[in-house]
Each structure stands twice: as structure tokens, then as C-alpha cells.
């Protein structure tokens, strides 16, 4: 009996890890396919941007909703529905014959991911009741999630090069089908909680987060003073403020704001948000730097990320053991600090750098990322009652996704502004008209996509490369400074907290959801 139970737990963990890996992988693997998509579907830059960001937009807007729906209708049931939608969206994307269909399919994938990811951590909590066993399982689950983000560039380049752009979507279909089959057999049926659904909170949070992410995505390209960007930013502020006011007044809110009085919870969530802020920015800059300035092939640039991937795999179980022994403070502060050191170190290497020169920064950033994923999840699970696990998991994923979008937008804006200023001055000295600065500034991106940046005259190309590297350096240093400040703040927040049993974090009695195990 015990052996059968242990086997079921291993299969349940495998199911949750595989599905989370798939949803995290999809966040980054598509970037490698954008040039081929643009050629085959005759898409411009705006269309390609929405292929890449449509997923993040819908995911960030609906992940809190996914957590609430899981609590109301059953976490396992909603998890399976999300897996079905994600797999179906992947198949439609692979078969898409137009850019509009492809963007719609990416958004369907985002809906699926928003439904399945909050339930994943909640189900994990119920499958592994023992604290030490649960900590090891969360360590593996978190490591696989982080691995999906880091391995995307490594596998995406060769797949696109040899199998075509549709392969980055087809890969999800057999994985999703296998995960769905396993989910119906090995995952426990976690029944719904007897509580009302917060329809007002669902509408306000989805609309507010959607408006915010849209403004962050469109701001760098349209300009931050664009009417649509400003309108979406203002709408996001108003809608999210209304959401917070509503949640404070409800007896059964979708987002329990009183949980944020806990310093450990705030520190853990801040760590997840800021690591995504800095590292998503780095993962966005590195391919452009390697391909656009250093002249690497897409596959080579992808393989260059292997050291980061290896360190994430190594660090995830290590951080789980550190969390079990010392609590989340040590690995969280260490992980955030390592990410800050890695980003700062990378900013000292430019267009003449060799791979071995900055290899240490990739190891450092991978170690830092791997150290933070697990303790964030464990810290949150330790501080919330079981009935609120789905909501807490959705909050983790929302902040991580928003951190990534915000990191790319803010650090990208810093890069663009710095590059434009430096390039304008350099081209002025070369006698190039001011009106040509904009098209010439796109040269690093065009080179990375295999376009004709090599047609630029030698002095102009050198000015472009120098300005781009200068912008990358400033963006990386800003990201490093933000992470360093976060490490100090997290250390202070977690130093003032005391261990607390989950049930004590909420002074209202909380009903426990019904759990029914499947018959084998």
C-alpha cells in the first residue's frame, strides 16, 4: 500500500513538473522563431511583438482569476481544463496561416496557462502532506519551472533552424496530451470550497492587469506619451485601485490583502517579482548582444545559455535544503544578491568580449535564479492557510509575470534612450542626417534576425554597435542596482518575522476543501 502511494506521489509530481515546464518554456522559446514567422506570415514588427507578448498579456491578466476559479470549482478540474486549452492553443498556433490566427492562438495558450499554473502548487500541497517531503517536491517543481525559462533559448534555435517555426508549438501537443492522461489518472480530485466567487474582483483584476500589461508592452514602441498608452496606464491605475478597495471590503475576497501584513510573505513575493524583473531583461538583451553585435548564429547563442541552465538545475535542490534548515531568508537574500552580481558583472563586457570572459556571469545568474524559485513557493505555503493556496499560487505567478514584462519594458526603455542619445551624437560627428537615426538604431535587432545590417558602412556599423553596447551596459547596471536594493530590503523584511503556522495567518475559520483520490 505504501509503495503504491509513493508511486502515485511520484507520478503526480511528474505530471505537475511536466506541465509547468511546458508553460514556462513557452514564455521564451517563441522568441527564437520570430524571424521565420515574420518571413512566412508576412508580419511586421508590431505583429511579431504581439506574437511574443500576447501570451504574457493574457496570462498576467487572468492568472488571479484562474486561482479563484480553482478554489470555487475544484483545483484539479480547473487544472485539467487549463491543460486542454493550452494544448489546443499550441496546435492552432502550429497550424496558423496568418498572423492574426497565431496571435489569437497565443492568447488561448495564455488562458490555459493562467488556469493550470495556480492549481499546480495547490495540488502539490495536498499530494505531499509531510513538510520535509513537500519541501523536496517543491524544490524539484520550482527547479523545473525555472529550467523551462532558461532552456527555451537553448532548444529554440536548433528547432527553428532544422524543423521550422511551427515546431516550437508542436512540441507542446504530445507533452500536453501525456500530461492530461496522467492528470486524469494520478492527481487527486480536490473538491471546490464552499464560498462565493468574487465576480467583481475577477472583472476588475483582469481588466486592470490587462490594461497595465498592454501599456507596458506598447510603451517602448509607441512612446510613453502616446494617447493609447497613457489611457491604458490611467485605466490600469483606476481599475486596480478599485480592485484593492473592493477586496478590503469583502468577507471572502479573491485576494486576501491582510496576508501582505506578513513580512515574510511580502519579502518572498518581492524576491520573485524582482528576480523576474532583472533576469527577464537579461534574457532579452543577451540574444541581441550575441547575435546583433558579436555576430553569433542563433543556435550558438542558444547553446551559450547552457551554463545558466546547469546552475539552475544544481541550485534548485540546494535551495530546498537550505530553506528546510535555515528558513527562506538565507537562500532568498543570497539568490537575489547573486543575480545582482551577475547582471553587474555582465555590464563590464562589450563588443570585444570573448565568451570565456563573461562565462562566470552566466553561472552566477543561473545560481541566483535557482536559489530563489523554491524558497518563494515554500515561504508562501508556510504563511497561508490551505484554503488560500490557489490564491497565493496565483499571486506568485502574477507577480513573476508582471516582473518580467516590467523588466523588459523598463530596462528596454533605458537601453533605447541611452542608445539613441549616444548614436545621435556619433552619427552627427559622421555627418549622418538626424532623420536616419531611427532606422539605423534598429540595426542590432535586424542583425540578430539575419537581416541586412551588414550593408551599413563600416563607421556607421561601429557607431551602432558601440551605442547599443553602451545602452545594454546602463540597463544591466540599473537592473543590478535594483536587485541589490531588493536583497537588502528582503533581508530586513524576513529578519523581523517569526515562524507561523498557516492556520494562524487568518483569524477567520477556513473550510478545508474536499480531497478524493482516484481509484487506480
From TrEMBL:
<comment type="similarity">
    <text>Belongs to the major facilitator superfamily. EmrB family.</text>
</comment>
<feature type="transmembrane region" description="Helical">
    <location>
        <begin position="165"/>
        <end position="187"/>
    </location>
</feature>
<keyword id="KW-0046">Antibiotic resistance</keyword>
<feature type="transmembrane region" description="Helical">
    <location>
        <begin position="229"/>
        <end position="251"/>
    </location>
</feature>
<dbReference type="GO" id="GO:0022857">
    <property type="term" value="F:transmembrane transporter activity"/>
</dbReference>
<keyword id="KW-1133">Transmembrane helix</keyword>
<feature type="region of interest" description="Disordered">
    <location>
        <begin position="499"/>
        <end position="520"/>
    </location>
</feature>
<feature type="transmembrane region" description="Helical">
    <location>
        <begin position="50"/>
        <end position="69"/>
    </location>
</feature>
<feature type="transmembrane region" description="Helical">
    <location>
        <begin position="263"/>
        <end position="289"/>
    </location>
</feature>
<feature type="transmembrane region" description="Helical">
    <location>
        <begin position="199"/>
        <end position="217"/>
    </location>
</feature>
<feature type="domain" description="Major facilitator superfamily (MFS) profile">
    <location>
        <begin position="12"/>
        <end position="498"/>
    </location>
</feature>
<keyword id="KW-0813">Transport</keyword>
<feature type="transmembrane region" description="Helical">
    <location>
        <begin position="402"/>
        <end position="420"/>
    </location>
</feature>
<feature type="transmembrane region" description="Helical">
    <location>
        <begin position="330"/>
        <end position="348"/>
    </location>
</feature>
<feature type="transmembrane region" description="Helical">
    <location>
        <begin position="111"/>
        <end position="128"/>
    </location>
</feature>
<dbReference type="GO" id="GO:0005886">
    <property type="term" value="C:plasma membrane"/>
</dbReference>
<protein>
    <submittedName>
        <fullName>MFS transporter</fullName>
    </submittedName>
</protein>
<keyword id="KW-0812">Transmembrane</keyword>
<keyword id="KW-1003">Cell membrane</keyword>
<feature type="transmembrane region" description="Helical">
    <location>
        <begin position="140"/>
        <end position="159"/>
    </location>
</feature>
<dbReference type="InterPro" id="IPR020846">
    <property type="entry name" value="MFS_dom"/>
</dbReference>
<dbReference type="GO" id="GO:0046677">
    <property type="term" value="P:response to antibiotic"/>
</dbReference>
<feature type="transmembrane region" description="Helical">
    <location>
        <begin position="12"/>
        <end position="30"/>
    </location>
</feature>
<dbReference type="Pfam" id="PF07690">
    <property type="entry name" value="MFS_1"/>
</dbReference>
<feature type="transmembrane region" description="Helical">
    <location>
        <begin position="301"/>
        <end position="318"/>
    </location>
</feature>
<feature type="transmembrane region" description="Helical">
    <location>
        <begin position="81"/>
        <end position="105"/>
    </location>
</feature>
<feature type="transmembrane region" description="Helical">
    <location>
        <begin position="360"/>
        <end position="381"/>
    </location>
</feature>
<dbReference type="InterPro" id="IPR036259">
    <property type="entry name" value="MFS_trans_sf"/>
</dbReference>
<dbReference type="InterPro" id="IPR011701">
    <property type="entry name" value="MFS"/>
</dbReference>
<keyword id="KW-0472">Membrane</keyword>
<feature type="transmembrane region" description="Helical">
    <location>
        <begin position="474"/>
        <end position="494"/>
    </location>
</feature>
<dbReference type="InterPro" id="IPR004638">
    <property type="entry name" value="EmrB-like"/>
</dbReference>
<feature type="compositionally biased region" description="Basic and acidic residues">
    <location>
        <begin position="505"/>
        <end position="520"/>
    </location>
</feature>
